[in-house]
Amino acid sequence: MKNSLIVVLLLATGLPATAQNTAPLTARLDKVSLTFALSPNGQPTYTVQFGPKSVIKSSRLGLTLADGKGFDGPLEVTGSETKDVDESWNPVWGEVKTIRNHYQQLTVHLHQPQAPGRRLNVVFRVFSDGVGFRYEVPQQPGLSYFTVQEELTEFNLPANHKAFWIPGDYDSNEYSYSTTRLSEVNTTPIEAIQQKAAPNRIQTPLMLKSDDGLYVNIHEAALVNYPAMFLNVDTKTYGLRSQLVPDATGAKAYLQAPEHTPWRTIVVSDKAPEVLASKLILNLNEPTKFPTTDWIKPQKFVGVWWEMHVNKASWNYADTSNIKLAGTDWNRLKPNGRHGANTANVKRYIDFAAQHGLQSVLVEGWNVGWEDWANNWKEEVFDFVTPYPDFNVTELQQYAAAKGVQLMMHHETSGSVTNYERRQDAAYRFMKEHNYAAVKTGYVGRIIPRGEHHDGQWMVNHFNHTAALLGQNQLMVDMHESVRPTGLHRTYPNWLASEAARGNEFNAWSTGNLPEHETILPFTRLMGGPMDYTPGIFQIKLESWNPAQNKGRQVHTTLVKQLALYVTMYSPVQMAADLPEAYEQHLDAFQFIKDVAVDWDDTRILLAEPGEFITTARKAKGKEEWYIGSITDENPRQQVVKLDFLTPGQQYEATIYADGKGASWNKNPQAYQIRKQKVNSKSVLKLQLAAGGGAAISLKPAGK
Ligand code: NOJ
Ligand code: CA
């Protein structure tokens, strides 16, 4: 990764160290401008503009500390600097080959005029597509260890914007999005996934659209050693106020100076596609310190997984419960005959992966403990190293290796993080010994230590520690039920994806995801980083797997929309989530999943509107191949796609996977048609998307 610093310009205002300065300070880049000012009573505030339009009205900044002597004012400005940075860097994997990091930085030095006279800096970075800012507590006499009681950051919006939001559950992001005006935000009628949210508390990334045509996204970058930021909505004034996730004692963050908070981010544009293309959050994260990254491999995988979600198989080996981890002789349990992770079945998946060129096979339910795992708030459920009697680790590793396939490890912690941390070293040693390269982790249920939340400082530190520890072992990770990402995959490029949202799996065991869901996720959850959404379900109606338990259940898209998701939802690790037998019935459509890349040199968001449609084109890493994904909500629509991004003069063969005649997500979801045509950079395609449907296109140089 090379950083080339082009311009660094330092401008000191040269104020004497104690001077009170209430004159506003500004920074800007292109249309985005930021103003910092002290209120008449010495409270720090900021505003953001996009051209002439207000993005954030005057809004408070500051922190309160548990000792009552924090930074809620009065404060004075003792100095400020600006600098301009324009550099570029190459991510280890991603949506584009090179990322430009261009911003103007304003640092404001604040001081308490009264005792204890503490100092605080606020650092703003203004990009052409938004603003990031954070608090920095410098080293100083009289302030070393401190506890944050609350962050006072506000985002006061100028009008009653349309908002795409989920309730502020400190333990789960697995919600459907509500689309309302800010004045109508109310989480009360929404059933809690884990913890009931206060009526006006919602999560970030929060997507907003103003009536005067601005798209605004509020989130955070580089969440390190701090709790996640939630937002309390004032439904009368349209003000958002930060609400940090508390720990078991009610405190927010234990810090030691010098220290800084995560960046608060505001992405803004008058064009929805530019929000999706923004690299602001990644740019605010630190480059990786990993000495090498060539062991990190973007990949596609299948898994012994969906068959458990659709009730065809079980994670557990026996139907006995009330088992203790220590002292149980697993060989003496009576098998239930439905255990998915048995050697013969895993071999079937390995064969399928090998035959179709997919890199890995995830196996869930391979290790002892599943008889007794969910909802007990029990400390010792899994040991992460003992296979069930019918899962032969050595035999499977040899079988997979002979076929050029890798097994993917699974560590469900059942929320018992104390138990996992005690066993991580042994678990990762086991992975190395048995040739595993990646692990999917999971945190279902209430957290142990009891009283901690998934999104509090303690768990944030656990997730980051886990990524770092796996990195030291040259292992990759995909985390489920983690805190939602904040761009830390720049720092830990082995952290390929997280779930931290409502995945495709909800279609298997709940009323499911609305057809609009996947048109909102890239504008919300995916702003922070890739998601393991598990696309690629072909058997849309689920009754055929288990008629009694899956009555009326289905995936809420067409089959073709499942293909398009590989392009519209970026992740370097993508599952082909359905069963081999489902794919074997539609191998012509499965060809798209085989072909599509997971690492890209270029990305063009061609058409997008949150909650309605997204059409994205991406160029495969190191190849002259492009892939297009186009999706719609519950409304059928036409998307007109100009191929002017293709190399001029080059002919391509387009393979177009389209919804079939009469297709719709609920009536005829599996109808599709595949046609081939020659195209070039002057071609225009008219894609017809069914209700809840999509289109997927591969473009390869013609004549090859
Ligand atoms: C929830 C995860 O999201 C899912 O993918 C996994 O199969 C189950 N937990 C079991 O760990
Ligand atoms: Ca989950």
From TrEMBL:
Pfam families linked to this entry: GH97_C, GH97_N, Glyco_hydro_97
UniProt-recorded name of the protein: Glycoside hydrolase family protein
Domain Glycosyl-hydrolase 97 N-terminal, chain residue ranges per copy: 31-287
Cofactor(s) the protein requires to work: Ca(2+)
Superkingdom of origin: Bacteria
Residues spanning the signal sequence: 1-19
Coiled-coil positions: none
Subunit details: Monomer.
Residue ranges occupied by any Glycosyl-hydrolase 97 C-terminal oligomerisation domain in the UniProt entry: 599-700
InterPro entries in the cross-refs: Aldolase_TIM, GH, GH-type_carb-bd, GH97_C, GH97_catalytic, GH97_N, Glycosyl_hydrolase_97
Lineage, broadest ranks: Bacteria, Pseudomonadati, Bacteroidota, Cytophagia, Cytophagales
Any one Gene Ontology molecular-function term assigned to this protein's record: carbohydrate binding
Organism annotation: Hymenobacter swuensis DY53
Keywords: Calcium, Hydrolase, Signal
Residue ranges of every copy of the Glycosyl-hydrolase 97 catalytic domain listed in the record: 305-501
